[in-house]
Amino acid sequence: MENCCNNSVQFNGEPLALKEIEWLFQAMSALEKENRLGQIPPFIKNDGEGYLFEIDFSNTSFYYQTKSKPNIEVLVEIADRFQAGFSLEYYDLEKSLFGEAKYEQGILTDIRLDIEDFEHFNYDLEEQAYMFEGLYYDSDVEILEIMLEMKKEQLNNSYGQRR
């Protein structure tokens, strides 16, 4: 799929609610395989955005793709319907999109890297490795994970200093 955002979500809540969410995703996956169209839960009214493609499930995580951005609003509606929370990791490296969203007790936190963050590392052709803050890395994703953790730490520290 062109301009796809890769998503990995884990829901948390009561066991029965989690089982119902699993059934929902399995049904959407089966329908997608049957009609080859993106899926969205039938109880969600939307304007054509947020559809899930390539839906898969492993252990307690659901993996899927969306067009160009994560479908956080859809996940919030699913979580609210089943009185659950979730943790979402998403990325589209071609569009400089890398982030994490959490939804707990009605509070949504979405932390993502900005396009400027992607400019803080580069690929060294001579070393055949990515360079970030004077260190070499085999993977750009490893650097992005480090930068996201740094951003989360900065946000946590800034909240802790407020009065």
Describe the structure in your own words.
The protein has 163 residues and is an alpha+beta fold. It folds into two domains: 1-112, Api92-like domains (Alpha-Beta Plaits, 2-Layer Sandwich), CATH 3.30.70; 114-163, no CATH class. The protein has four helices and nine strands; from the N terminus they run E-H-E-E-H-E-E-E-H-E-E-E-H. It has a six-stranded antiparallel β-sheet, sandwiched between helices. The chain has a three-stranded antiparallel β-sheet with strand order 7-8-9, with helices on one face. Strand 5 (97-104) and strand 6 (107-112) form a beta hairpin. The longest helix has 21 residues, at 15-35. The model has no long low-confidence stretch (mean pLDDT 92).
Reading the helices and strands in chain order gives EHEEHEEEHEEEH
**Please, what is the average pLDDT?**
92
Q: Strand pairing plus helix content: what structural class? A: alpha+beta
Could you give a short account of the major beta sheet?
6 strands, antiparallel
**In CATH, what is the homologous superfamily of the largest domain?**
Api92-like domains
Overall number of structural domains: 2
Strand order of the largest sheet: 2-3-1-4-5-6
How is the CATH topology of the largest domain named? Alpha-Beta Plaits
Overall helicity: 25-40%
Q: Give the overall shape, derived from the CA principal axes.
A: globular
Distance between the termini: 47 Å
Radius of gyration, in angstroms, nearest whole number? 18 Å
How many helices does DSSP assign? 4
The first-level CATH class name of the largest domain: Alpha Beta
What oligomerization state is this entry in?
single chain
Name the beta content range: 25-35%
Q: Per CATH, which architecture of the largest domain?
A: 2-Layer Sandwich
Ranges where pLDDT stays below 50 over 5 or more residues in a row are none
